[in-house]
Amino acid sequence: MAGALVGGAFLSGFINVVFDRLLTMDTVNRVLGKKLGPGLVERLKISLHAAEAVLDDAEYKQLGDDSVRDWLNSLRDAVYDADDFLDAVLTKAATQKEVRSLLPSFFLNRHRKMVDNMEGVVSRIEFLVRQKDILGLQKNKDNNLSSSWRETTCLMEGNIYGREDDQQALIKTINDNSESQLSVIPIVGMGGVGKTTLAKWTYSVVEGFDLKAWVCISETFDVAEITKKTIEEITKNSCTLGSLNLLQNKLQEILSGKKFFFVLDDVWSEDADKWKQFIAPFHCGAKGSSILLTTRMKEVASVVQTCPAHFLNELLEEYCWLLFAANACFPESNGNPTLEGIGRKIVKKCKGLPLAVETLGRLLRGKDDAKEWNAVLRSDI
Questions:
Q1: What is the mean pLDDT of residues 216-235?
Q2: Segment (H or E) for 104
Q3: Can you list the alpha helix ranges (DSSP code H) found in 135-207?
Q4: Torsion sign across C-alpha atoms 73, 74, 80, 84
Q5: Which residues contact 12 (CB under 8 A, 6 or more apart)?
Q6: What is the pTM of this model?
Q7: What is the distance between the terminal CA atoms of the chain, rounded to a whole angstrom?
Q8: Cβ atoms within 10 Å of 233's Cβ, excluding its own
Q9: b/e for 146-175, b at 16 or more Cβ within 10 A?
Q10: Sign of the CA dihedral 51, 54, 60, 63?
């Protein structure tokens, strides 16, 4: 089923079923006319463990990479074949005495052929494991939709649905603090709820600032590195200054007397000392200067905020459907009621997270086969 999603958790569970069957290999070898040698069993175990280690990463990456999706489908088929083989042999083991007394020679030959086929299955799995490096699949990588980190930019990537109240509230907060020396306004919400999108919209519409910059932070809050990135975003030039002292003095020189609007996207550190050190050069700007900061953590907001934090809730389901339909180009499906029914179930499973809705909508763009839509609906994603 080309294009269908493979659930990583389901496949991982199935691999464990195969491991359980391998525990009974002594019984298997008593049934077969040709032993399933320990070397082959060990190869199967090693290759299955290696494949299982990258399933989480593969499950996520299949959303945007057909090669990874094909890899998962091939792995699934090979694991199913291995399980079918072991199941058939163990069924024979249940009737071992009858098999030994009545089994004709051509049936023993068939058993030997089964072992040869199993060797082929193991070779297929080993080949697939070797492909994981070519596909860039990584072990124990936390790649679920709500927590994966990606570098962001200030550019808008489509329409915003159902955030009118949040948009108005942010603009009001910025305007209400026009006489403050420096306002730090956190947007707080779970991963994938649309904090960055809301920050992009705000960045695109605010006016009356001498300087604007967008800085993507992520988990590592290195004061020197972030200060350097801020300078480069403002000046549009590479910064070669090495020490934090030189960097902060340069930033203070740039900001002195200027009214600025900066976005710090995806802040994780709740280290108050690092924040105090980082923010020092920003106090020299003109009144009305603002920093809009996005974070998943209320603890971060409590450290950085000079204004009440704006908490972003999950998107209402009807707006999620509009976002999904826009990304899936659903109107081009001629209003297919079957696809709409499946699509609305997919949206419901996304639990109000626009990033999940948008990603799955793009995955189904231009696809009119209900089987593919149902595969996404059933996926662990």
A1: 93
A2: none
A3: 164-176, 195-205
A4: positive
A5: 52, 55
A6: 0.66
A7: 18
A8: 18
A9: eeeeeebebeeeeebbbbeebeeebeebbe
A10: negative
